[in-house]
Amino acid sequence: MGGNGIQRAGIGLLAAIALAACDAESPAVKVLTGPTPIPGGDAQGAGDITLVNDRLAISFAVETAPPWGVARGGIIDVATLQDGAYSPDRASLVDFMPNNWSEWPTTYQEVTVDRPSDDEVIVRTERDWGDVRLVTTYRLRGGDHRVHLATEMTNLGDATLAGLSSGYSLWPDGGHIFGIPGLSGLEEGETEGALANWSGFYDEDWLLGLHADFDDRIGDAGRDRYLLHDLGVGETRRFEAWLQVGDRGELAPLVAGEIELDGLPAGQVIGAVMDRTGNSVGGAMVVAERQTESGNHPYAWTSSDDGHYAFELPTGSYRLYAAAMGYGASSAITVVIGDGDVIEQDFSDLRLPGELTIRVVDEQSGTPLDARITIEEGQTPLIGYFGSSVYFTELSAVGRASMTLPPGQYRFRVSRAEGFTAAPVFLDIGVVSGESREVTAVVDVVVNPADRGWYGADLHHHSDVLDGYTAPHFVLRSELAAGLDIAFLSDHDSVVNNAGMARLAADRNVPFIPGTEFSPSWAHFNAYPLDDDATISIDVGGATVQEIFAEARRMGADVVQVNHPYIDYGYFRSREREAVPGGYSLDFDLVEISAAEPNEETIPSVWQLWNAGRRVYFTAGSDAHDVWQEISGAVRMYAHVEGEFTVDKFVASLKAGRSFASAGPLVFPDILFGTELDHAASAPLELSYSLQAVTGLARVTLIERGEPAAVREFDGETALTPLSFTVRPVTDTWFALVVEDTAGNAAYTNPVWVTPGQ
């Protein structure tokens, strides 16, 4: 391949060659080297590459390390251009994955820039994945809003590689996920039932889409597009896709793109959009649902900013309606579109919104409470930036949530530490067009653990960095609504939002623990609390585990916790595969019980560590990325602090095991967890606990050295004081508690250590 210059980066003997020849102005496409011009972009290395035409810009990670331990050479920044001005960065990663998110044993990356003409630039990335050679080309032409991607993977080894899941990943930077039409709500699985070849991601002022027809399965709600396949010795398999970029939060351009790329027969629907008074509605959208034998499936939407819309759709049957922020949706109509048809259809009955304010107070004191408010029944928008089914009370006006809603009947669920310290409250409310209404929700808080010196925190939480979708102020609102006593943040390989989160927490007089999640491809670790000026100075994706642990300590962290240890890329799973760079290290402090991942292997593994005398304790976190879809504090850690609360005391209690993890039940021991007892051999030892379960207690199990020592069954009692077990230890041992409630949630305590003496 010819070209104007080459940039190489990698491990081994590959040399870096300047790309200066590619920096010249082009009539259609520019090639820039150095830090990206895209605001908020991650490509900041001197050798990074940015392609720019008159409609979009994309930046490649040549020197900058991509997120999540992915090898260099892929796209890490995407922006649109309007009148020569760049939009903020819209993407975290666009790249080819040889086998899902498996480890990257890469030894080199070679990035080449070629300009076949003034109208076209091609970036070629070559790298290895074990015995596989991966060559991906990215082609951008002048005036185009799409980038062509093509990858060839060749097996250079001496054995067939079976059961690979290979394909492209598109991870937006925030926004909303639509995914693939026909697969709404599918997190992962086969693509049978897909109604298009594109996946869409958007916000009010941007659009990203990936056109691909090679895949037979998806992951992460359509962010990952894979083909399940084998790769024989010497075999080469080719993958192709198109990355489409837009500057509006409508999906119609993706439909038009598929029609163009695949040559689909299509027709148009055109018309006007008005409210019931005959006025045009600003920002309205016309939504199309594809009709199949299985029902109506959300398909796409197009704008009608000037009161008129035009929708190009493939031939078929569709259900159409108009929607706008806060308005009641119009009546729906069905159209059957034939090839070349132009169908006129107006929508003139959008209903004006109403205003609702919900105040949340404590039943006993009347004090305003932070809360999460969910629409259980009633109209909720399909388009993400039109509204939500989930609201949070405000930070400044505690206990108050105001919302603009379509008219109609609603049932709201008001939650304050739901399932931990209070039951939910339900409100049935009617919203009337053009009217305002205020109602009060009264929550019965039955217990406050902090009154007993027990403080709760969600020790794994994300904001809007990389794959996160939650701005810091919503992180805090969600954590407070969960009844947590401490604010916490741990973004992937980033501390960028810690300072802002600290200011928000200080304004509410809430303690804050700043953290980060080190995220190589073979394990994730949370480190906290970090120094105020801490920054990550290592290449996390290429570091050994020893280097990561050392970096965490250098940044001020007293705690290194192993996150979701048994997922495919978890630390304990990688240990089993002998895939930990530098070799397995025990220099961590805590092991996570996760709300997002199964814990069936984690809990007995930690018990086995205790059996071996290793003082490594449980921690817990939700791993929430999107607080409108996930619950902050769904599982949390309670730690005991004596006297006045400080963050340092809380962290010290975590490290000392004076804590328990819970998804609901509360456990207050007479003998603090983590205590080391000297006790006369065979003499009776009483272990007593006060228990609380808002949903009612179902079962309590006393664990000794990883095995049930006693089991008590209950009939839904909400409080027990005390619950006692009498044991007679004769050798060194430990005792812990598992408490289950009637909702299927559990609490897991750290141990009491017992050393029998004379």
Short description, anyone?
The chain is mainly β and 758 residues long. The protein contains 7 helices and 52 strands.
| Class by SSE composition | mainly beta
Strand content: 35-45%
Distance from N terminus to C terminus (CA atoms, Å) equals: 81 Å
Order of strands, main sheet, comes to 1-8-9-10-11-19-16-15-13
Helix content: under 10%
Number of distinct beta strands: 52
Q: CATH class of the largest domain, please? A: Mainly Beta
The Cα radius of gyration reads 28 Å
Overall morphology = globular
CATH architecture of the largest domain: Distorted Sandwich
Assign the CATH topology of the largest domain.
Beta-galactosidase, Chain A, domain 5
What's the main sheet like? 9 strands, antiparallel
Question: Mean pLDDT, as a whole number?
Answer: 94
Helical segment tally? Answer: 7
| Uncertain spans | 1-26
Question: How many domains make up the coordinates?
Answer: 5
